[in-house]
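Entry 14. Structure prediction run on the chain below.
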Amino acid sequence: MEFGKEKIYTIPVNDAFQEDSECPFCAMERKLEEDAIAFTLGPSYMEDDVRAMTDEAGFCKPHMRMLLAQENKLGLALMLSTHLKKTNKDIKALQKHSPKASGLFKKNEESPLEAYLDKVGNSCFICRRIEGFLEKFFDTVFYMWKSDPVFRDNFKNCKGFCMEHYSRLLKTADKRLRGKELEEFCQLAGELYIRNMERVEEDVNWFINKFDYRYKDEPWKNAKDAIPRAVTKVNSILDKQ
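Output returned:
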């Protein structure tokens, strides 16, 4: 990543770290998903290059459900039409040239038809689009960590990270930082992670206590929304606020 050309990504990264969420990367990912759904069913679906990508990749189940819930049924129908046309043509050709019954393939060997079906069944245009931007956002975090003292403060004051994004943060740090800078960053990120995970753990335990008659008259403290916040920490699911 050439940081001089990528400063546009600092805005969404800054916004996410200033947002009150249990994981700024989950906040980024949620916004990317919303934007990707809007892009997919916006004017872009009339563009040949976008349609070629949706024809080739299709959509995963969660994102197809999200597309189906949108109002633009014509846009979805147009994409489904050309996607069906492409996949039906490809599968028809593969059925002729790679039937299992032909004896060309061993019993447990995957045929080209099976490989194609697995590939299409496990790909998604929206997932790819989100991942492309999210990778740049992770890189931007380290660009800003090195160059922006205000961002450093925002990073230090965030509520930590979910398990998935904490792992990815450490892996990216390994590529972007060296020596004492890497050690300092990983130590801080680790402290942020544990401190905030334990905070949420305490909130979940207090939520449980509130169902015990001995605590029924005690205040809820910060436990009322402990379950969705814990789900964010453990499974990277960030509900809309």
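The chain has a mean pLDDT of 92.
Filed with the rest of this week's runs.
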